[in-house]
Structures are given as structure tokens and as C-alpha cells.
Amino acid sequence: MSAVPERMPALYLGHGAPPLADDAVWPGQLAAWSATLPRPKAILMVSAHWEEAPLALGATGPAPLVYDFWGFPEHYYQVRYDAPGAPELAENVRRLLRRAGTPVQDVPDRGLDHGAYVPLVEMFPAADIPVLQVSMPTLDPRKLMGIGRRLAPLRDEGVLIVGSGFFTHNLAALRHPGGGVPGWSAEFDDWGRRALHAQDVDALLDFEHQSPAGKLAHPRTEHFAPLFVTLGAAEAAGDLDRRRDAVDGFWMGLSKRSVQYG
Q1: In degrees rounded to 5, what are phi and psi of residue 223?
Q2: What pLDDT, on a 0 to 100 scale, did the predictor assign at position 5?
Q3: What phi, psi does 13 have (nearest 5°)?
Q4: Strands annotated E in 10-158
């Protein structure tokens, strides 16, 4: 008899930008986090940097990375992450979503973008685990939670579901006088931490209105949106009370809060 895969956690992480690799602290935090995880059979990534409808499945075989950033030093465009493709996972995603009436398309030449590969380089540097990236077909938090719920059974097949965004994301923080953490970033981070701890999903779904400085923390919601895929995958498995803050603190004024369910 073959072993039954261990149920994998569901993660939401701050993915940073290409210079994350040069930070003195953050790469070590991500590496220490991944060392506590069971080894995934495959990784399903939902990145803030791919919005496409209908929901799209990225490359299931070798494809170049998507260097979706501009103006950085040349060495950031030389990074490689040659993880195996995940055609079996792609087929299971199609099955689960189409069964629920969610249309799915394939974009076979779409490689991993920086919201996917930047944290993976730090967490799974051997690049020996199959990875599939899927798009966000909407930024509606409730619809994304629904997608997460439908994908939740993959966790029992050894799949690590990762929502990759940034807990606060307003690049005005980079121009904050004197550096440091802008008040709106600290206030939103504290509110979000408390809402997650209280399992107040309704407040999180309505974060633009219920949180302090919500529209400053997220002028556009794409970097918070992957959290809701993670929450849906956690809620479906009854894991909302099995949460831990894996990474906290700030990077260039932005909250890098990252959480694990299960």
C-alpha cells in the first residue's frame, strides 16, 4: 500500500521584490519557516502578479521565468528557478474547478513570475518540487475564498497551497520621510493581525471599510487578495483556528506578515 500524503498547510506569504535576496533577515526567516513544513508533493502558487480571467493554469513544463519588474540591476534578471512542472496537479485543479462550474484555461508558456519564484528561491532553493502557478480571475475576496474552498482537497494529496502577496502594499512607503514604517502600514498590520487571530473572516472580507487606513495600505487590492484563497483553503479544512504567524515585521515600510494554517 502506498503512503497517504500528509495534509499540507495553506500559506499566505509576503513575497517581497527581487532585492529580498539581499536582505539581512528576511531570507533566513523564509528558510527557517520552510524547514518546519512537511515536504510537499507539489506547490500551487497564487501570486498577486497574475490576474487573468477565466482562471488560467500556467506552464506545466519548462518555461522561462517572468521577470515582471523594471529598472533593477542586471543580476536580478539572471535568477533561475528550474522547478519541475506539475501536469498531474494541473489536471486535478481543472477537475476540482470545472466540477464546481468554474471555467479554466491553459496558458502553457507562462512561467513563474516574481511573486512566485522570489519566495520559492528562499524557501525551497533546490527547485526539486513541482510547481504550478494559477491566475486570480477576480479580486473579489468572496469569490477568491470560494476558489480556495474548491482547491482545499488538494491539501490531502500533499499539495502546498500558497497565496503570495504583501500584507501592506503601497509603494508610497518607499518615500516615507526618514525611512521607517508609515503609520498607515503599522495600523493596518496590527488590525489584520488581530482580525486573523479572532478568525474574523467577515471583517477581513470587508477590509477596505473595516480596517484603519485600508485604502492606503492597499490602494489596489491585488496584494491582499491571495490571502482569501488561503483562507478558503483553510476554512474548508476547519483550520482557521490552527493559525500561526510565521513571519512578521516590516521591509521598506511594508508589512511582511505571513501566516500558516494547519
Answers
A1: -85, -20
A2: 73
A3: -135, 150
A4: 10-14, 42-51, 55-57, 104-106, 131-136
Give the span between the Cα atoms of 57 and 80, in whole angstroms. 20
How would you class 139 by CB atoms within 10 Å of its CB: exposed for 0-12, middle for 13-18, buried for 19 or more?
A: middle
Q: Please answer whether residues 110 and 59 qualify as being in contact, where contact means their C-beta atoms are separated by less than 8 angstroms.
A: yes
> Please, what are the averages of pLDDT over each run of 10 residues along the chain (262 residues)?
74 94 95 98 98 98 93 93 97 96 96 97 98 98 98 98 97 75 96 98 97 94 98 97 97 96 98
d(CA 27, CA 10) in angstroms, rounded, equals 20
The reported pLDDT for the residue numbered 2 is 47
| pTM of the shown model | 0.96
Cell of 77: 534578471
CB neighbours of 72 closer than 8 A, spacing ≥ 6? 18, 19
What stretch of H or E contains 255?
strand 254-255
147 φ/ψ angles, rounded to the nearest 5 degrees: -65, -45
DSSP H or E segment with residue 184: helix 183-197
Helix (H) or strand (E) holding 161: strand 159-165
Q: Which phi and psi angles does 11 have, rounded to 5°?
A: -120, 150
User: Which residues make Cβ contacts (< 8 Å) with residue 203, sequence separation at least 6?
Assistant: 195, 210, 211
Q: Looking at the DSSP assignment, which residues form a beta bridge with residue 42? A: 159
